[in-house]
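Lab notebook: predicted structure, single chain.

Context: the supervisor wants predicted structures on file for every construct in the current expression panel, including those that have not yet been purified. This is the next one on the list. No modifications to the sequence; it matches the entry in the shared construct table.
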Amino acid sequence: MNIKDMEIYHVPNVLWHYRVPTYNNLAKRCKSLKVGYIEIEENFNVDTNDGWVEERVGGFQLFDWKVIFNLATIKSLFTGSDCFLLEWNLRNIFLIPVTFFAMYVLRKRVVWWGHGESKNTSLLTKLTFWAGRKIPNCVVVYMDETKGALIKRHNYLEKEVYVARNGVDTANIDKYMANIGGQRNDKEWVSLYSGRLNPGRDLDRIVRAIYELNERGISCRHVFIGDGEERENLQALAKELNVENKIQFYGAVHKIEELSKIYAQVDYVIIPGWLGLALTQSYAFGKPAIICDEKEMHNPEIRVYSDAAGWKYVYKNDSLAVTMQGGMRLGKEGVRRMGEVGHSIIAQGYSTEIMVDGLQSAIEGL
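Prediction complete. Output recorded below exactly as produced.
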């Protein structure tokens, strides 16, 4: 079936701002796209207090799917969709019953879309791997390697596994960055962290590293993008170490135009905790990354880091400051060239358009 004639429903576990360009791109290709969130990212621009929300965000319809037995929801599902696009989270206990409801009550075709891999060996994870092979019409994963593993290790059929690389809105990033131009300070090094300021992400290590480097006479500062319960602790630590003027907190920033203004000042990105889409975003903005050797990583971020190169500090040795200083030895121009390599990899293989190409292939192959 041609995607232009299809009405598609996507149900993510959490509605994130970074997915909006993907949804808008997919919405341009199909008859209609409705995104029914179960949870919503804090500060998303939708009022969720009414219990039933339906709003157009760019090219797609957004609605609250928290209560499946809401009559308005059921009516909308029965009378609309040709296909359900469900987030394949291997720890999501609701995935299987929702799939059964969609396939056998609503009589819709179902695609599971997600990582398709996990280091977790729990019974639930094993059940979800088995269910992915048996229940949905097909699955979509982020990497060719993951597809190969599902076929080889879990006996998936090749024709039922598709690849849609986890994409970044490189077109708009390039547009805004070109308009802003380079704003890096030749006399000061600037690093950035983008993500939640939550416990367990080892963020205090960044503040201590900035202190150490400035004590050695290396002028540097750091920018935090994001909010969370650790923000006050980080601010207190910066004050204690007398580097509060070297640490900036921007809070949650989602608009590419605003992000571009911040990234334009930055030399490189530091990701001390869980390695997620912050990595692909940093390379999309043309910034190389420093990561930790012991934190959880998964594809596509592992592949992106391996292809683009970068720096890795040793967690046990507390070597972040040393690693940062080592990168600085390349000079501003050397670091900039590393960022350009990363940007090229993202633009050619991990753009929003390429991701939606993979989704379209899966949906039309149903």
